[in-house]
Amino acid sequence: MTKSKLLEMHNVGIVVESLDNVISFFQEIGLTLEGRMIVEGEWAGRVTGLGNQTVEIAMMVTPDGHTRIELSKFITPGIISDHRKAPVNSLGYLRIMFRVDNLDELLSRLVKQGAELVGELVRYEDIYKLCYVRGAEGILIGLAEQLGSQTATEILENS
């Protein structure tokens, strides 16, 4: 039998309270709403292990069309825990990082929408300008602007 191989990363899932608020936040970063629908029934619960469930989902896609964020609002069963305000060194979900082309301008727009800068906007050598923000519903997002022509991965590979 031929060994399976990874083809692509399709999406990252985030459970939210308000799809509208979180969709708006990710649209401000530059993602596009690809679709929105209700997923329900016993078949869906067999995948998640939650039994009969009703979930409204929204799929957001990056401009290159290769990566998605699936936003889920559970209607039934209800939410049982909340990890949105956990600090960056907590176990589990850490953050999603996006590379952007004008970090200062985007950060200004996100702050006007209520996002909060976590720590500081910093410069990593002459490679990236970086920051973390807590956006809609406290979702932790990393933002990076590439400054030079070489990426951090290329530098590590050449060292």
Gyration radius (Cα, Å) is 18 Å
Tally of DSSP β-strands:
8
User: What is CATH's topology name of the largest domain?
Assistant: 2,3-Dihydroxybiphenyl 1,2-Dioxygenase, domain 1
Q: State the domain count.
A: 2
- Share of β-strand residues: 35-45%
Query: Could you give a short account of the major beta sheet?
Result: 4 strands, mixed
Protein name: VOC family protein
Organism: Leptospira ognonensis
InterPro entries: Glyas_Bleomycin-R_OHBP_Dase, VOC_core
Task: Briefly say what this structure is.
The chain is of the alpha/beta class and 159 residues long. The chain has four helices and eight strands; from the N terminus they run E-H-E-H-E-E-E-H-E-E-E-H.
Q: What would you note in describing this structure?
A:
This protein is α/β, with parallel strands linked by helices and 159 residues long. The chain has 2 domains: 8-80, Roll (2,3-Dihydroxybiphenyl 1,2-Dioxygenase, domain 1); 81-159, Roll (2,3-Dihydroxybiphenyl 1,2-Dioxygenase, domain 1). The chain is 22% helix and 38% strand. The protein contains 4 helices and 8 strands. The chain has helices at 19-29, 42-48, 103-112, 152-158; strands at 11-15, 32-41, 53-61, 68-76, 96-100, 116-124, 128-134, 140-146. A 4-stranded mixed β-sheet has the order 1-4-3-2. A 4-stranded mixed β-sheet has the order 5-8-7-6, covered by helices on one side. A hairpin with a 6-residue loop joins strand 3 and strand 4. The longest helix is centred in the first third of the chain and has 11 residues, at 19-29. The radius of gyration is 18 Å and the shape is globular.
